[in-house]
Amino acid sequence: MKNANRVSWIPFFHFFFLLVSFKIFLVQVVIAQNTTIPSPAPVAVNVGVVLDFDKQLGKIGLSCINMALSDFYAAHASYRTRLVLNPRDSKMDVVAAAAAALDLIKNVQVQAIIGPQTSTEANFVINLGNKSQVPIISFSATSPSLTSLRSPYFFRATQNDSAQVKAISAIVQAFGWREAVPIYVDDEFGEGIIPYLTDALQDINVRVPYRSVIPSSASDDQISEELYKLMTMATRVFIVHMPPSLGTRLFAMAKQIGMKTEGYAWIVTDGMTNLWSLTDPSTIDSMQGVLGVRLYVSRTNELENFRVRWKRKFQQDNPTIVDAGLNIFGLWAYDATFALAMAIENVSMGNFSFKRSNISNGTDLETFGSSQIGPQLIQALSRTKFKGLTGEIEFVSGQLQSSVFQIVNVNGNGERTVGFWTSKAGLVRELKLANRSSNSTNNKPNLGPILWPGDTTSPPKGWEIPTNGKKLRIGVPVKIGFNQFVKVTWDPNSYSATSVTGYCIDVFDGVMAAMPYAVIYEFIPFATPDGKAAGTYNDLIFQVYNGTYDAVVGDTTIVANRSQYVDFTLPYTESGVSMIVPIRDNKGKNAWIFLKPLTWDLWVTSACFFVFIGFVVWVLEHRINEDFRGPPLHEVGTSFWFSFSTMVFEHRERVVNNLARFVVIIWCFVVLILTQSYTASLTSLLTVQKLQPTVTDINELLKKGEKIGFQNGSFVEGILKGLKFADSQLISYRSLEELNDLFVKGSANGGIAAALDEIPFLKLLLARYCGKYTTVEPTFKTDGFGFAFPRGSPLVADVSRAVLNVTQGDKMKQIEDAWFSKESCSDPNASVSSNSLGVESFWGLFLIAGVASISALIIFAAMFSYEQRHVLLRSDSKTSLWKRIRMMSRIFDQRDLSFHTFRKSELGDKSGNDCVHTISIAGGSPNTNCPSSPSSYSNQTEQDFLFFVDQGRAAENGDQTPSGVSSPEIFPSSGRRSIELTNTQEQSV
Q1: What is the widest separation between alpha-carbon atoms in the chain?
Q2: What mean pLDDT comes out for the span 373-396?
Q3: Which residues pair with 693 in a beta bridge?
Q4: Could you tell me which residues come within 8 angstroms of residue 28 by beta carbon, excluding any fewer than 6 positions away?
Q5: For residue 827, what is the DSSP state?
Q6: Angle at which helices 328-346 and 374-383 cross, to 10°
Q7: Cα–Cα distance between 701 and 729 in angstroms, integer?
Q8: Nearest alpha carbon to residue 485 among 831, 823, 827
Q9: What's the angle, vertex CA 904, arms to CA 898 and CA 907, rounded to 5?
Q10: Is the pLDDT assigned to residue 183 strictly greater than 90?
Q11: Which of 22, 180, 468, 623 falls 20 to 30 Å from 672 in CA-CA distance?
Q12: Which residue has the higher pLDDT, 650 or 698?
């Protein structure tokens, strides 16, 4: 029993021993592993930080950089690299920043530098990084000029200032401002944005009349002096680009001198908008109504959590700074550090050492080496892409890409968002509307309510006449003649202008009175000290271009070359340049004037139609009307006589054919129109013959070498020279009286044969000297008189609208009556034109007459052919076509005894008053008891033809003898037709 119990414990003991042995083995294995394969230590990578630690922005940046490293390696504890920060203080000095960067590169051998803080400092540091192959990552250097360095080792982890100019120009365009003045600091930061801003404004036709440059170390007096200069200008839209330290002083001085009142518009770039939280709260009051532009950063939970953590840590590290606010530069510093840590980790297998320089005895700038990991590191940075606190972080050509800008308005103790700008939608009130169409049906800006300077919600118009500055200096021309337009009255003792009057002056006064606001101005004659004209009109216009005058008022014509220097308003007079010549009296000197009412083509056409109508009437009347029968010459004369006598409606011949009557009625109507038109035209020629110009074509003057006049100082001189007139042919005049005297002298006696001038001046001459002159071609097109202002002046649009109101109202009529009513003439602009009438005036009448006549001929020919169809259709093949035509012509030449005009003569035949010649069948001689007719003679050679005709007509009437032979003699009767070969002849008693 005991042996049995001892045996049962043996297996259990063995199992327990094996279990303990295995556990001991496992523990030894783990201990062996921990002691033989230790984990590698992270690689320390030196990174430099160059900031101004005396400024709050530098402290905020360093704080965010430290937090970024802590957050990054807390989330990625297993990464093989660790960034080691080596901070250096730039002390807001370019040399100090460069020295700090040089020390970091040469002595510490940093693989990258975060900073420097300003664009001016970064300019030199970037060159150091490029030489040493050390990437420079700046989160606060925003100047676009840094991009021009084209360094692959410069990464801008902030917003390029040039990206915001489109948003600024969109604001200017939305409110319709035509001018804007940039105010910027005189350094790398301020000057870099100006070319881009100017281009953006010019793209929307906004003029930049002045650039205000403020030195970075400017005193309050210097700032005030510059602001006072801006006050004297008309522009009231200012775009401020400078750091907050200088910008707050600028706004404080602007408020002090009265430039923060109603009518002013101030826009600040993100250089100030991003750092409002760092400014003294007391300066906010001077910035009321200012619009600011900055990059939009969406509020996320990660951003809010970081903001809370940062504020707690920053307060612990800087207990002396109270109410510090996190700005976007701190966020960019955080994201830049994250990007650098990710890129360093991606190249962790590379060589982080420096390659020494081969130069041994050179300067510090020549002897520092270059980073061997640099080329790989910049490629890793370019590939880095992640979502940071400010949004998507990705470097494209070393630059961060922007998408949305926020528009804020300083109101009360803080700011209020009034809209956004995106590259696709432009200005939008709410960001969720950015994907919708930006085209608005009204002209109002797509922004929220804005409080402008002066506590007003009405947008400034962008400019105004400075009341505390100089008045508008209006230049006026000095003229000896044509004082109805502009007249300057001088004090004979002091040669100072006492008054400026005239038509143009009154129009300008009326236009200024119609403006929607008051404009203060004064007229300044363009004259020499002795009261004479100081130059031509072009010289006067140029005075506006160079700033001597603010505008020009007078009889200044709008022409193309002048518009290159000034902007003209809409014209207020009619336009054009024409030629004026004297009138000569040719009455009674032309013996052939009766031919001039009609042109030669109309004379020939009329004569042809007279002949044609006579022929048509003869054809229609020859067989049935004794008036159109007789010897050939008699018939031709009768036809012409009848046709031409219709001109005076004295035709005595009877017309018995209805077709001929139709033709004559149409022709009489045509003749009536022709004669009446001829009479009216001849009367006009005999009356207007006095008004014939001495010259009708300007080319005649060139060919003959005649002299031509132009108004002194006018642009017309250039037109004449362009027409190839020699200087010896050009004579200037100054007044109407002088022009008249030149015409009286004539070209041969030192005068002129013609003058070229603008229509308003010519109308004045024609009105004063009625009946002596007239205008002729050519007329050169111009745009009339207009007021000249500097190019881009905002006054031009308002003045042009006022010009329309004045010229379309009663005011213009009153002004014209006041200055030109005394110069009146019944027909001051009498001009001569040709009174000759041509075929083009009557071709319709001739067409009607021709169609009627030809239609009548066609109808008559058809009827005649139908009656004589047995002749044309004769089956006898021996008769040729030409012989048939001769047969038809002989039939046409005989009387148609069936017509009613000849039936009345039958009674006379029965009483023996008429003798009828007949032809026998057998060819016997005709009856010769009566004398022969002068119009017709028997033809004994064509007996067969006459027999055939008689047979055909007898067959038509059913009269045939049994043998088929006609009776020996044929006499006309009511039941039988015959062909009369001779005319009847009355027997004298």
Answers
A1: 210
A2: 91
A3: 583
A4: none
A5: S
A6: 120
A7: 9
A8: 823
A9: 115
A10: yes
A11: 623
A12: 698
- Range with the lowest mean pLDDT among 212-221, 540-549, 649-658? 649-658
E strands present in 353-429: 354-355, 370-371, 385-388, 391-396, 399-400, 404-411, 414-422, 426-428
Write down the pLDDT at residue 21.
61
**Using CA atoms, how far apart are residues 930 and 915, in angstroms rounded to an integer?**
6
CA-to-CA separations, 257 to 221, 225, 238, in angstroms, rounded: 12, 10, 15
- φ and ψ at 20, to 5 degrees? -65, -40
Dump the DSSP string for 602-662.
HHHHHHHHHHHHHHHHHHHHTTT-GGG-SSHHHHHHHHHHHHHHTTTT---S----HHHHH
Query: Is 580 in contact with 775 (CB distance < 8 Å)?
Result: yes
What pLDDT is attached to residue 98? 92
Q: What is the pTM of this model?
A: 0.58
Query: What is the distance between the alpha carbons of residues 249 and 478, in angstroms, rounded to a whole number?
Result: 48
How buried is residue 875: exposed, middle or buried, by Cβ count under 10 Å (0-12/13-18/19+)? Answer: exposed
Query: Is residue 103 packed enough to be buried (19+ CB in 10 Å), middle (13-18) or exposed (0-12)?
Result: middle
Strand partners, 113: 48, 136
Residue 120 near residue 189, CB atoms below 8 Å: yes
Residue 449 near residue 416 (C-beta atoms within 8 A) = no
Query: Which residue shows structure tokens 């046409």?
Result: 892
As beta bridge partners, residue 387 has 392
pLDDT at 115 over 70: yes
Output the six-digit token pair for 671: 């003749």
Please, are residues 931 and 987 in contact by the beta-carbon 8 Å criterion?
no
Contact 49, 115 (CB under 8 A): yes
- Please enumerate, as own/partner, the contacts of 657-662 that have beta carbons within 8 Å and a separation of 24 or more: 657/620, 657/621, 657/624, 657/625, 657/860, 659/620, 659/856, 659/859, 659/860, 660/616, 660/617, 660/620, 660/621, 660/856, 662/852, 662/856
Quick count: other Cβ atoms within 10 Å of Cβ 910? 8
CA distance 549 to 476: 10
Strands, E assignment, 641-720? 692-693, 708-711
* CA–CA distance, 156 with 148 (Å, rounded to integer): 13
**Which tokens sit at 13?**
């003991």
Cβ atoms of 472 and 466 closer than 8 Å: no
Q: Specify the long-range contacts of residues 649-655, CB closer than 8 Å, at least 24 apart.
A: 653/625, 653/627, 653/628, 654/625, 654/627, 655/617, 655/621, 655/625
* Mean pLDDT value of segment 833-860: 82
Give burial (CB, 10 Å; 0-12/13-18/19+) of 931.
Answer: exposed
Give the pLDDT score at 845. Answer: 86
Burial of residue 591, with CB atoms counted within 10 A of its CB: 0-12 exposed, 13-18 middle, 19 or more buried: exposed
Candidates 179, 160, 190; CA nearest to 405 is 160
Q: How far is CA 653 from the centre of its chain?
A: 71
By three-state DSSP, how is residue 807 classified? helix
* Location of structure tokens 């460069």: 98
